[in-house]
Amino acid sequence: MKHSIVALAIMSVGLGAAQAQDVVKLGNAAPLTGTISHLGKDLENGSRMAVDAINAQGGADIGGKKVKFELIGEDDQADPRTGTTVAQRLVDAGVKGVIGHLNSGTSIPASRIYDQGGVPQISPASTNPKLTQQKFPGVFRTIANDVQQGGALGNFAVKTLSARKVAIIDDRTSYGQGLADETEKAVKAAGAQVVAREFTTDKATDFNAILTKIRATAPDVVFFGGMDAQAGPMLRQIKQLGINTQFLTGDGGCSPEMIKLAGDAINSNTYCSMAGLPLDKMPGGAKFRADYKARFNGEVQLYAPYAYDAAMAIVKAMEKAGSVEPAKYLPELKTINFEGVTGNVAFDAQGDIKEGAVTMYQFKDGAWLAL
């Protein structure tokens, strides 16, 4: 009888281990508190939709068995130091892949932690070129980078908006400054003049001093590299100061929240860019919008579709490799090629998305209209 109990105990431990292996942890890192928490939650929602879709089908077929997934969400607070702490926590938790971070300023330092821990990272939102230029083998992104986006913004300002004088402001983050730098290069290459280059922070709310300096230069276009939490109030203050100009910003401000924050200061002279196609023109966009609304009772902000595709890329690579272990599935991730929500998902040798599209938008009739 004693031997039977021992045998039963050993069998129970073995069964528990087998069951534990059938649930694989994936990490998600984004700002879930603070002024851009709406964007961070949007990113996490996209990752969660992918995990839920896989689990609803009974899991993924990996190495001859069904594997389900658990999403471990972490709040990086859009802060570089917190980002590295969160990254280490996810590595220590045994995640097999990470979707995130949102901000380039958190993704870049966190990527070193993931590299040291041997955990692949796919960012659905970080656009600074430096992220993939570090040449960490497990770092990817499902969204176009700032070289592509900044080039499109600069050309749009000069060739479409007929700007001869452009004022540029950035929030001094890796994302905002990086995008502003690339936009400045493109503006100058297109033959226009950068008449002012000012900076603020990603926590600021008062821009009157820098805008007063810019007003004296009479710019045709004011470009802001940063997020909607600053872009909206900035647009209000541009109106209050009587600066008659066109306003241009990147994907960080190309959100429904930007429209709310800007209030009556936003008009048809306001433009933004998004790295990617409009949601309605994405191959799986219409269904994704409907599913997102049904699941979360809200509208897609920006990055959810790219997070969904990032999570799916990890799982598809695991399926191809027949293993959830990063060392085994990473080679497959490098050659992955599938039709995602956002379009074709395939990475170049550096880890950037191939065929990264950029779309320009204009504010019209209360919403962003793709041009």
UniProtKB/TrEMBL annotation:
Stretches assigned to the Leucine-binding protein domain: 24-366
Database matches in SUPFAM superfamilies: Periplasmic binding protein-like I
Pfam short name (any one): Peripla_BP_6
UniProt keywords, alphabetically: Signal
This protein's record includes keyword Signal: yes
Domain of life per record: Bacteria
CDD domains per UniProt: PBP1_ABC_LIVBP-like (cd06342)
Signal peptide residue numbers: 1-20
Family the entry assigns: Belongs to the leucine-binding protein family.
Name of the molecule in the record: Branched-chain amino acid ABC transporter substrate-binding protein
Organism per entry: Thauera terpenica 58Eu
